[in-house]
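User: Can you predict the 3D structure for this chain?
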Amino acid sequence: AAAAAEAEKQQAEAIAAAEAEAAAAAAAAIATAAAALKAQAKAVVAAPTSQQLSKYAADAVNRGEALLFWPPEGVTVGTTARVYYNRCLGPLPSNCQLQIKAGLNKWEEIVIYDMERCSTLSGAPSGQEWWQAEFKVPAELFKFDFVVMDKNTGGVDNNKARDFTMPLLGGPTEQQLMEQRAAEYAAAEAQRLALLAAAEVEIWEQVQLHAAEAAAEARVHFRERRTKELMAAATKAVAQRRRPALATLETAQEIADVFTWAGGPLKAGSRCMLAYNCRSGPLAFTNTAKLHLGYDGWYNKEKQVS
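Assistant: Here is the predicted structure, written as structure tokens:
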């Protein structure tokens, strides 16, 4: 049993070590990817100048577009995005309070950003009412969909049921993000299994320790109980051997011409010899004889010697 327990313990420790190694490798890969994203996120994107923003706004109006993004070529993930919206080209009323309701990575997560009137474009010509929102774009992002929403009524401009999409740069692909999440899950699962294996080894050691302590305690109780039982049996036997009626039996160490103990009276633990005269006493003229012995007042009386 001890060998089996030791083998099981060694197997659990080996499994825990392998899982810990896998977890460390996965964690290293994740750390490398995270470091790359953090390095990318350190890039600072300057806000557009008044001239730049006015030009891009005029170009958007000429194209009939209600949205502007800064930087116009696309927002690098992990950096700050700036979104500009011309309410006059959308369906929302003039007394609205605008927000961006965004769905990250195919609406896997929904976030809301408040918008405010763009002071830089406050002097824009009639037919333009520009609002802006500025927010940090998550690094683990492959798609950014959104609608412009009126906080007061819940009404939205959803680009004619097609949603708006902000162009992204430097982000992972959907496949890369799924693989990264799978690696993170594998690392967490490996760590969980390693902890479980270590806990199992610890629990098994505790079980063995408690079993050994219980066995030792049981042996002590058994010895105590057995000692009491034997003492009770011995006390009972002694009481029976010392019954008052036994004291009335007539005894003799020898009878002249009949028997005697050669070598003197009996002594406990010593060898003895009984000499019996078959031509005298009650057994006179017998040809054979057997000695019937009784010990302790005939308590043990089955001993016969030819």
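The longest helix spans residues 174-241. The chain has a mean pLDDT of 85.
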